[in-house]
UniProtKB/TrEMBL annotation:
<keyword id="KW-0808">Transferase</keyword>
<dbReference type="GO" id="GO:0000049">
    <property type="term" value="F:tRNA binding"/>
</dbReference>
<comment type="function">
    <text>Specifically methylates position 2 of adenine 2503 in 23S rRNA and position 2 of adenine 37 in tRNAs. m2A2503 modification seems to play a crucial role in the proofreading step occurring at the peptidyl transferase center and thus would serve to optimize ribosomal fidelity.</text>
</comment>
<keyword id="KW-0819">tRNA processing</keyword>
<feature type="binding site">
    <location>
        <position position="327"/>
    </location>
    <ligand>
        <name>S-adenosyl-L-methionine</name>
    </ligand>
</feature>
<dbReference type="GO" id="GO:0002935">
    <property type="term" value="F:tRNA (adenine(37)-C2)-methyltransferase activity"/>
</dbReference>
<feature type="binding site">
    <location>
        <position position="142"/>
    </location>
    <ligand>
        <name>[4Fe-4S] cluster</name>
    </ligand>
</feature>
<dbReference type="GO" id="GO:0019843">
    <property type="term" value="F:rRNA binding"/>
</dbReference>
<feature type="active site" description="S-methylcysteine intermediate">
    <location>
        <position position="370"/>
    </location>
</feature>
<dbReference type="GO" id="GO:0070475">
    <property type="term" value="P:rRNA base methylation"/>
</dbReference>
<dbReference type="GO" id="GO:0051539">
    <property type="term" value="F:4 iron, 4 sulfur cluster binding"/>
</dbReference>
<feature type="binding site">
    <location>
        <begin position="196"/>
        <end position="197"/>
    </location>
    <ligand>
        <name>S-adenosyl-L-methionine</name>
    </ligand>
</feature>
<feature type="binding site">
    <location>
        <position position="139"/>
    </location>
    <ligand>
        <name>[4Fe-4S] cluster</name>
    </ligand>
</feature>
<dbReference type="InterPro" id="IPR007197">
    <property type="entry name" value="rSAM"/>
</dbReference>
<keyword id="KW-0479">Metal-binding</keyword>
<keyword id="KW-0949">S-adenosyl-L-methionine</keyword>
<keyword id="KW-0004">4Fe-4S</keyword>
């Protein structure tokens, strides 16, 4: 810079950091919540206690209004309300299937929409949570894969889906009274199997799951959380170390040739590379076994030969194989395997010593089943022909 360069220029171009409205406390880790509280002048030596108090109100008792946080002074509550909000995604619509499955369409900042599904079973209630709006990957059998990635969800939007469902199920304990541990929970399990590839939104998924697991809040055990990935190999070890939840993998094929077409990320990390990462997972995460998800597609991946190859491939990995009858969606280029074929396939795996449950499709009548999710507002950008062409199929 020359000596006579105009000083004003520098002053004018310094970007001023203006906060874009109040900060949402939902989704902040404990450390970030602490920073936020310090930034409004909370005394350093009170910060830890204030974090605990506010955390408990938000995640243990489901309170959304600072005015209700009665163990904080009125002045402090007013100060919090001035700078912060407690916001979760807004429910746009809710559909209830004949089998009790609930599908919610929720709206997040920017007007985008994602789907969340609650599946009640006799011994548990599972919430299927989304991690992205759309998906960058293009698995040829998946409805979400026809929708381009719009954006990653924030940690607040991910944990907010759990809070939204607890609102709808009316499952927050009475403030100051219960901890919600009294009986079996309506919402007892989380599966990251909604829209998106969770390992491509790693940090936000991790922060949200840490909040869901925190013992002074939603308090779900890490063994009740299952993350499903299409096979983002470099993130698998990180998932074990930093989240420690159970892992499911969208395996779906027994040769690279077929997997390349069904799960195109296989071209980047093939079956062998994926299996190496999976072999290390149970030890790293101290969990028992991996779930291999296998979608049953007629005449594509469902022969006896496939079943035998699958068993050989996973040898030595503690595993359960979850067979998913293909769920059709408008324009899908595949058909579900016949029922007796699925049973035969399951039988071969079972006889080899693995649990091989066939996943009963839930909420099909409301398009809530696996792989059928896609927000109606985000139009399909690909035609049926395009999907088939990309999958290397002729229509
Ligand atoms: N992106 C992650 C998680 C979301 S998909 C993943 O791919 O693993 C959750 C599961 O549903 C995956 O195993 C996925 O392969 C499967 N799936 C997708 N579309 C499907 C469909 N139409 N029918 C049945 N299962 C499907
Ligand atoms: Fe994305 Fe998973 Fe669907 Fe593949 S199966 S397109 S990774 S959401």
């Amino acid at each position: 810079m020359t000596a006579d360069a105009p000083i004003t220029q520098d002053v004018m171009t310094i970007p001023r950091k203006l906060p874009e409205g109040p900060v949402n406390l939902v989704g902040l880790t404990r450390d970030k919540l602490r920073e936020a509280l310090l930034s409004i002048g909370t005394p350093e030596k009170q910060a830890k206690m204030r974090v605990n108090q506010i955390w408990q109100w938000i995640y243990q008792w489901g309170v959304r209004d600072f005015a209700e946080m009665t163990n904080l002074s009125k002045a402090y509550r007013a100060q919090l309300a001035e700078h912060f909000v407690i916001e979760i995604p807004e429910v746009v619509s809710k559909q209830v299937s004949a089998d009790g499955t609930r599908k919610y369409l929720v709206r997040i900042a920017g007007g985008h929409e994602v789907e969340v599904v609650y599946i009640p079973e006799t011994d548990r209630g599972t919430l299927c949570v989304s991690s992205q709006v759309g998906c960058t990957l293009t698995c040829s059998f998946c409805h979400t894969g026809t929708q381009k990635l719009v954006r990653n969800l924030t940690a607040g939007e991910i944990v907010g889906q759990i809070m939204m469902a607890r609102d709808d199920l009316d499952e927050w304990p009475e403030p100051g009274v219960g901890t919600g541990e009294a009986g079996p929970r309506l919402l007892s399990n989380i599966v990251l199997m909604g829209m998106g590839e969770p390992l491509y939104n790693f940090d936000n998924v991790r922060d949200a799951m840490k909040i869901a697991m925190d013992g002074e809040g939603i308090s779900l055990s890490r063994r009740r959380i299952t993350l499903s990935t299409s096979g983002v190999v470099p993130e698998i070890a990180k998932c074990a170390e930093e989240i420690g939840c159970l892992l499911a993998v969208s395996f779906h094929a027994t040769t690279d040739e077929v997997r390349d077409k069904l799960v195109p990320i296989n071209k980047r990390w093939n079956i062998e590379t994926l299996l190496d990462a999976l072999r290390a997972y149970p030890k790293l995460s101290n969990s028992e076994r991996i779930t291999f998800e296998y979608v049953m597609l007629k005449d594509v991946n469902d022969t006896d030969e496939d079943a035998r190859r699958l068993v050989k491939l996973i040898k030595g990995i503690p595993a359960k194989i979850n067979l998913i009858p293909f769920n059709e969606w408008p324009g899908s280029p595949y058909q579900r395997s016949d029922w007796d074929r699925i049973e035969k396939f399951a039988d071969i795996i079972y006889k080899a010593g693995y649990a091989s449950p066939i996943r009963t499709p839930r909420g099909e009548d409301i398009m809530a089943a696996c792989g059928q999710l896609k927000s109606a507002t985000e139009r399909a950008r690909k035609s049926r022909a395009q999907i088939a062409a990309e999958a290397g199929l002729s229509e």
